[in-house]
Specification:
- The termini are far apart.
- By secondary structure, this protein is an alpha+beta fold.
- The chain is built from nine helices and eight strands.
- Helix 4 crosses helix 5 and helix 6 crosses helix 9 (176-198).
- The protein has helices spanning 2-10, 15-22, 79-84, 105-114, 116-142, 145-155, 159-162, 165-171, 176-198; strands spanning 26-30, 35-37, 45-51, 53-60, 63-71, 75-76, 92-94, 98-104.
- It folds into two domains: 2-142, Jelly Rolls (Sandwich); 144-200.
- The strands form two sheets. It has a four-stranded antiparallel sheet. A four-stranded antiparallel sheet has the order 2-7-4-5.
- The protein is 52% helix and 22% strand.
């Protein structure tokens, strides 16, 4: 099970601890286009993605702005809404048929209180969510278009083929037309680099 393998990398769990914890999770399936979380709903669970792909987004003047993609091997929720217990302004929608393993807030808190291992995992999840949000904000503020796309390709190569181009453009905060030009420019530069490297 992907979740069990992932948890075992986060802390020094015994098999007994992991098996007990997995009993707290329940399986959910989403079809492409289904909402995991709608605007105005409360985020009272965290889910681990066994298979599939989701987007977290918000709307500004009727235009969708994508903040995050979640895919296999990642935990998912609207962390701001989850932590503040306020209605979400950031819906989460499935981009593919997906399967997740979810755990409700009460059960998760029980795990956090049950051992030092789980207390550590709770801290890791919170720190990871914070670091991701800061990295994203810094990149949008400081990186040019070419750097944004190059970083996205390096960090999430599989998403280039799985996510519609207009959504990638939204995530990188550029228009689809700009994304197309940047892709061509990057591809051309990569070809030049490969040519130089080969000595041709």
């Amino acid at each position: 099970m992907l979740l069990k393998n992932h948890l075992s990398t986060l802390s020094n769990f015994s098999d007994k601890e992991l098996d007990r914890a997995l009993d707290f999770f329940y399986e959910e399936k989403y079809r492409k286009g289904d909402y995991y979380l709608r605007e105005g709903q409360y985020s009272n669970k965290i889910s681990f993605i066994e298979s599939g792909l989701f987007r977290l987004f918000y709307q500004v003047s009727g235009e969708e702005k994508i903040m995050l993609f979640f895919s296999e091997g990642q935990f998912m929720t609207d962390y701001f809404g989850y932590l503040t217990q306020t209605p979400s302004i950031r819906p989460i929608q499935a981009l593919e048929d997906s399967k997740v393993l979810s755990i409700d807030r009460i059960k998760l808190n029980q795990l956090f209180e049950s051992s030092k291992n789980w207390e550590y995992v709770g801290r890791i999840l919170a720190e990871s969510a914070y670091v991701i949000s800061v990295h994203r904000a810094n990149r949008l503020l400081h990186d040019d278009y070419d750097t944004r796309l190059h970083t996205f390709i390096q960090e999430s190569p599989s998403l280039i083929q799985r996510v519609p181009q207009y959504m990638i453009a939204s995530y990188l905060n550029m228009t689809p037309e700009t994304l197309s030009r940047v892709k061509k420019r990057i591809m051309k530069n990569e070809q030049i680099k490969n040519t130089i490297h080969k000595g041709i």
